[in-house]
Amino acid sequence: MQMTPSQTVGPFFSSGLTTEKCCVRNIAGPQAKGERVALTCRVLDGDGVGLPDAMVEIWQADANGIYNHPDDPQQKRCDPACTGFGRMGTNEAGTSEFETIKPGKVCGLNGQDQAPHLNLAIFARGMLKQLYTRMYFAGDPANQNDPALALVPPQRRDTLMAKPDPLRPGHWIFDLWLQGEQETIFFDV
Length: 189
Hints:
The structure is a single chain. The model has no long low-confidence stretch (mean pLDDT 88). The protein is mostly beta strands. The N and C termini lie far apart (37 Å). It has an 8-stranded mixed beta sheet with strand order 3-2-7-8-9-10-1-4, with no helix packed on it. It has a two-stranded antiparallel ribbon with strand order 5-6. A hairpin with a 7-residue loop joins strand 7 (117-123) and strand 8. Helix content is 2%, strand content 30%.
């Protein structure tokens, strides 16, 4: 009996899901309340090589910690200038760039505040299922009490931290390592 090759997904993101028409670079418009930030996501393999033709989706709350979604249990109104959603493909270097605002603390289901964070889904060729993770802002004091971050071993929490770009104020860099010693913590959802 001869083995048949396994089937993988893609590459198709650049031809169907991340065309200019389908991309959403601006998660929060210019009228959105809150601290403006630019974010570069780098999707990397285990050797640190950027993956072209991957796709990064982001969901986030507005500056008041409210999601622009009807299932957000909070009774407050969300900022209409913050859609809370972004989608970009990666370029040849494995990067994608977003414009948004720093989200506020989100009230968790148990009433405990979650630190400002972005929720990410990563899609790439060879993966049959997307990967889910969170991105926190390095140095934010609220990280100390975040219930999801507390579940991550202390020595691995750095894999969930975006770092400020020392050359560009207001710009953050988040590395998404898909495997290897520096592999990003991914959530089983």
